[in-house]
Amino acid sequence: MNRKKFIAAASVIAIASIKKNSLMSAVMPESAKLLPIVDTHQHLADIVRFGKDWTSPPVPGNYDMKAYMNATHNINMVKAVYMEVAVPVARRHEEALYAIEMCKDKSNPTVGAVINSDLRSPDFESYMVQFKGSPYIKGIRHGFRSTSEMQDHQVIKNTKILGDLNMSLDFTISPSWLPSISNLIKECPNTRFLVNHCGNADPRAFMDPVAAGGKPNHDASEWIATMKNVAQNKNVVCKISGIISISPGYPKSAETLGPGINHCLNIFGPDRVMFASDWPWCLKGSELENWVNILKEIVKDRPYKEQKKLFYDNAVKFYNI
User: Fold this and answer.
1) Cα–Cα–Cα angle for 21, 24, 30, nearest 5°?
2) What is the average per-residue pLDDT within 293-314?
């Protein structure tokens, strides 16, 4: 499918899902509507300010703070944590300063930031130490290139340094790499880790093959087993995100996304899960407001206390915000 057709298809799915969700909102308990929300994965792709080489959002557009505020105006989004957007290496420090600028601006909900830094670099500590004690820089996200990299001495050393700096490590990896990251987590018990995007769970793995419309990216039972292995480490939490935009070809709804999300919630428990929008990357599957409403529908039968932990309490505690 070419880019133009993909964007068109994604828009159709999102619109259809939004129409369905208008009914969902009508029957949603008032307590769920009023839940305070912390977005632990807010991307800002301000192409107008920084130029086209800054980052590459999946859907054409400029995704600055104004656009984010518009996207969340019907959501009780009280706080947000900025997430790095894979800017060129030479502009990583500029991005960090931009994130701090957003955090200092009290007119928006952003209060913390996760930046980019190279875990493989011998200069990692000297770069990160400038942010030690910062009330805004909460950690880094690192894109692992191989499972062998997770066993690298320098990577392990730098990951431990993150813990010494009271910072965390976000990661997004293929489900097949989860056993390797589990070993790294064990090696660094004083560093806090965050599994991004539900461990890249593919909803099709939990659906009827005919309804799925395609082969899933992983086996359901193998994914469950490896996620349980990761969750055995008490210094790791799971972000409930990303699953809204993994694989096209089926409607994004509480019915299709619920199984994978519920596995994450049950595996990690109510104290180690947190909502994350992944905006604007979530737009590949749904508008942000619709994604929030789908997740609320999925968890509506869980105790209100657990819902509030998912959407607010755990993030505030984990990021100290």
Assistant:
1) 130
2) 98
